[in-house]
Amino acid sequence: MDELFLEKYLAKRTGCDQVLATELIRLSRLGHLCLHSSEEKPTQGSIVRKDNRYYLQKNWDYESRILAQLERLMQRDLLALHKQELFEKELSSAPLQPEQAAAIRRAFFHSFSLICGGPGTGKTYTAAHLVRLLTASFQGPYYVALAAPTGKAASHLEKTINASSRYVTASTLHRLLKSSSRIDADLVLVDEGSMIDVSLWTRLLESIGDTTRLVILGDPEQLPPVEAGHLFADLSPRFGFTLSRCMRTDVPELHATADAIRRGDADVALQLLSPQPTLDIDHLFQQIAPWTGPEKPEPSAILQHYRRLGVLNALRQGPFGSDALQTQLLQRLASRVQEHWWAIPILVTKNEPRLDLYNGTYGILVGKTARALLNLQGTAYFENSAYSAPPPIEPAFCLSIHKSQGSEFERVIAIFPEGSERLGRAALYTAVTRAKKQLQCVGAESTLRAMVANHERRASGLS
To answer: Quick one: angle between helices 445-453 and 425-432, nearest 10?
Structure first.
């Protein structure tokens, strides 16, 4: 039953069930699948009780279907399809750290597994060796489907895996699931598992064929999906193997900062973050250095220019949220453009499968005159395509932290306005781990301390 319809229905009723349903609707909108309560509450209609958990019917259905699929996947034995001695021989000679080899061995002996770890721990490097070893030990052609929630993450996975075989395909997760109700590849390998919501998890698990191995990569400490659930974090203790050793040694301060946030050590985190209390919009504009000039720019060079710096914001709405900052930055650029050419970073905001463009695809928009800039009129350039009539887009000078997941930047400016504390330490951790070399933090110390202290997990019955 639709939540808005349920609210109107319950508004006509009185009693404890209305209070319970109203609370379940509120929690569902915050991403929780259920309410844990030791107090026995009357239920009826679209409310389901299981032990000490209470669900809206929709969320109960999702969780029940997921549990049924997990049981199905766990009961399968795919080892007979592989030459185990050959797998072990190849694994022993592979250039892997011991924990990476252990993660591969676990994925080999289980038909469903998660490879967990923070940035720099070698998740996709490990996955590339897993694909190679599974292919080498398989008795026949080995079909691999690579996928991720966003086009950029899927492209990164494809490049890291170095999938040149005609038996390997790569796409967004939505496109993979839309192509068929049952995926019969020998291996489905999915990256950025923390971004997958409960609806997408249900569709993914139900689509896995009886002889298909499923491996999902991700970081359970990152922000949960925009929609309900945080299943990757829920399932990682039972099905995951965690890579803990960071292989990057160039910026130990960034790794120490992320680790302090993950452990909830606010004192160490704030010392390393050295936050600026307020945002200087003029200084931010100078750091972004929006491109403008008398000659039309070369798109690939401008794409690389904008990809070096990521300006991330914990909030989208409000006077200091990403939407307001986008408007201010765009207006500042427009006042300087006059009749010159300009190029700005953009994000696609709607799936366009016919163009092979999906929500979150990153690119640049190139045009001329201030009027065209303010109306977002120009030619949109993406990694391998260009469109004079671009799909729905928005400026991407400043990304919400949610939209930055799956991306990395050499430098990150992370902005945490008042109100960011409700997002908790996952938002702070996610922003910090987008930076490869340098991080600049903007926010009040009290806000950042509250974020580190807030480690509330979305509730479900799966954990």
So the answer is: 110
